[in-house]
Amino acid sequence: MKILVVSNLYPPHVLGGYEILCGQVVDRLRGRGHEVSVLTSDHGGSGDDPGVERTLALETPFDRPAERSRGRRRDVTRHNAAVTGEAIGRLDPDRVFVWSQLRLSLGAAAAAEASGRPVAYTLNDEHLAGYAPATLGLRPRRLAGWLLDHVAQRGLTLASLRFRNATCISAALKRNLVSRGVPVQGARVIHQGIPVERFAARLDRGPTHGPLRLLYAGQLHDYKGVHTLLEAAELVAGRRGTDALSVTVVGDGPEAYVERLRRLAARSGVPSAFLGRRPHDELAELYRGHDVFVFPSIWEEPFGLTHLEAMACGTPVISTIRGGPGEFLEHCSNALVFDAGDAGDLASRIEALLDRPELRARLGRAGRATVERRFSLERYVGDLERFLEEAA
User: Of 27, 112, 128, 191, which residue has the fewest beta carbons closer than 10 angstroms?
Assistant: First the structure.
């Protein structure tokens, strides 16, 4: 197949796992003999990557807070529609494969659908709900918004798209998108995968001869619940002493929230390290160098690539299971789970692994086996390949 991938970002310019995964999928599809081109934004510079065109525009650069401007969205929609239409005419793809449209507008996707080529969507988060048309209301502002979205500026909203061929990365994400007005009731659920070979396992996890080393890796926002981890560490330290554990935090986020985390760490007395954002190729060594990976998210996560990466490394996982992680984590089978936002519950799970090295070892082995059996990148790309072939 000749495939044109459309995405707001593409490596090396990334926000997180979504864009990294897009690059991995493109590489694997090319390795399977498909001719894959990429059309993405000029965020980070034009670059000279073969097969990658960085000519789409963003509504707002990612280094600035998102802005709500109908005029800017209209202009970006028109630009991206023209750029995409030209690229489709020139590259003549058999399929257009649309990834994230966050801050990209819907112009590229609408142009793809208007081209008459089969268009497929992979939905990895809830950003599309931000393009849902306004609901009708009697107040003048609500009524004006409804008229704009349903009549005058219909092309700026989801009303301009059909989503005939769509896949979601979890049943939880599909449910949430539908509830928020994104018409993907017929979407197929295809769980993501990771390149297991890049995450060699460390399975010789016996008794610790020092503090239990806890790791969090991801974005630092309140809804990620990293404060719950530090509060739980303080509870454990109060019962076991501050030398019983340590905490490493990898990632970045709003300065105010990061400062809140630093204050919590200082108050607890638990040795804590804030490493900031690290290159993705350093994460495997970080997973293997820690005893437990903790993911304390409060909101419904679409899925959980960092969980899978830690599990592939044989690192036992403690996590909440709201959203996608609940579709592959099983308490006391391949992970320990706790109630979101409950520092006491998390502290009890940490102490269970502190006291039971055999449980750490068993969960590490089970986690690795789960990833090998169900969540390899090769399986994921194979499922996407079939999905694209079947796209009408």
Answer: 27
Q: Residues near 65 by Cβ (< 8 Å), separated by ≥ 6?
A: none
263: number of Cβ within 10 Å: 12
β partners of residue 246:
213
Question: Which sign does the torsion angle of CA 326, 308, 386, 7 carry?
Answer: positive
Length of the chain, in residues: 392
Please indicate, yes or no, whether residues 188 and 56 belong to a single structural domain of this protein: yes
Measured over all CA atoms, what is the biggest interatomic distance in the chain, rounded to whole angstroms? 67
Residue range(s) defining the domain that contains residue 108: 2-193+376-390
- Whether the per-residue pLDDT at 176 is higher than 90: the answer is yes
- How open is the CA angle 16-8-29, to the nearest 5 degrees? 80
135-138: long-range contacts at Cβ-Cβ below 8 A with a sequence spacing of 24 or more? Answer: none
Query: Using CA atoms, how far apart are residues 354 and 236, in angstroms rounded to an integer?
Result: 10
Contact in structure between 10 and 98 (CB atoms under 8 Å): no
Task: Supply 34's token pair.
Answer: 């498909």
Residue given tokens 């997180």 in the structure block:
16
Q: Are 292 and 229 in contact, with CB atoms under 8 Å apart?
A: no
pLDDT (tens digit per residue) in 27-38: 999 999 999 999
Residue 295: partners with Cβ closer than 8 Å, 6 or more residues away: 216, 218, 304, 306, 307, 317, 318, 319, 320, 325
Check: CB of residue 299 under 8 Å from CB of residue 273: no
Supply the pTM of this predicted model.
0.89
**Looking at the structure, do residues 168 and 223 belong to the same domain, yes or no?**
no
Cα separation of 246 and 290, whole Å? 10
Domain of 324, CATH number, reads: 3.40.50.2000
The number of distinct structural domains making up the chain is 2
